[in-house]
Amino acid sequence: MEQRRALRFHLFAEAVCRWQDLLGQNRESVGRTRDISIVGAFVVCPSPPPVGTVVSLEIRLPALHQDVPWC
Hints:
five-stranded antiparallel beta sheet, 0% helix
């Protein structure tokens, strides 16, 4: 049974995670999204922050194609 709170969309986009480590040093890891929703994102990165860390997340969305009509 699906237990997600929101519909998820497959999206492969660059994601930048920023946080402070236990010594107060600024850290950053660049990864990719697997999917996103209005309430969250699944991000894969090579050096993720420790579980429970508060992070700032920047998702760099791909540009729309020129031939996509606007509604």
